[in-house]
């Protein structure tokens, strides 16, 4: 990858210009990031050390989703937090490239993993007798590996062209972290074809995955409804958390890459939503309100591990 740029850094405008607002956002984002790390780490801890969860396909996938969320937040949020104390919020050229590479790698992997989780729910609800046979360890490991491959191909198909762009003019990015559409607007060359590539790659990938997920959930509900009316309400309660996470995860992505009008305030809001809010969805919606996860915490506490303050606090919050 050859660097043809005349610039060696970009300036991020961030969220606010006043000191009071920056202190306010610092506190909010710091607490959010701490919650993301504690909540998702707790999920990984429970799934790793509790045998009941470790060998359950759904919780194995949830633990991998938690790892992706933690990594995605770590790529973006700490930089956002430290920038609140900087008058000039800069990021190096290759730091910006690395941030974009990792965001799209993790985002593409998470989209693929959510599709795998939808398949898991279909098998669990519609084919319960064959669930452990179909969703065996080999299939699960292969699905997780495939999700990373999809994320890698997704990000490389875009970054291979972006790293060759020349940046010789404005270097101000009106956002909280680097993202492809905003960075490409600063290039000294015509990026019309590359813009279409990014929209086709990121926009269509997220839209297609979102449609596939909705279709899979509709198939599940229709199948259960034909079998039993009572089972429909049970299936709906199980799927409601998944549908909520899918909608809140894919909504901002689709708007960022498919919205025809560029509104910088909206771009910032969606960037913050994607980097801060969606990584909180896994511990809040999926797991920490789940009865099996609570039972795992109680079992862990019985082994004198859950007496630690963090786990006690999490148990009191639920």
Largest beta sheet, briefly?
Answer: 3 strands, mixed
Q: Which residue ranges are poorly predicted, with pLDDT under 50 across at least 5 consecutive positions? A: 1-5
Count of alpha/pi helices: 12
Mean pLDDT: 81
The gross shape turns out to be globular
SS-derived structural category: mainly alpha
Number of strand elements: 3
Strand order of the largest sheet: 2-1-3
Structural write-up:
It is a single chain. By secondary structure, the protein is an all-alpha fold. It is built from twelve helices and three strands; from the N terminus they run βαααβαααβαααααα. It has a three-stranded mixed beta sheet with strand order 2-1-3.
Which helices and strands, and how do they pair?
Layout lengths: L8 E4 L6 H31 L1 H4 L2 H27 L6 E3 H34 L4 H4 L2 H26 L9 E2 L6 H5 L7 H36 L1 H30 L5 H24 L3 H12 L6 H9 L1
Parallel strand pairs: 1-3
Antiparallel strand pairs: 1-2
Helix pairs in contact: 1-3, 1-10, 1-11, 3-4, 3-10, 4-6, 4-8, 4-9, 6-8, 8-9, 9-10
Key traits:
318 residues, mainly alpha, three-stranded mixed sheet, single chain, 3 strands
Provide a concise account of the structure shown.
The chain has helices at residues 19-49, 51-54, 57-83, 93-126, 131-134, 137-162, 180-184, 192-227, 229-258, 264-287, 291-302, 309-317; strands spanning 9-12, 90-92, 172-173. The protein is mainly alpha-helical and 318 residues long. It has a three-stranded mixed sheet with strand order 2-1-3.
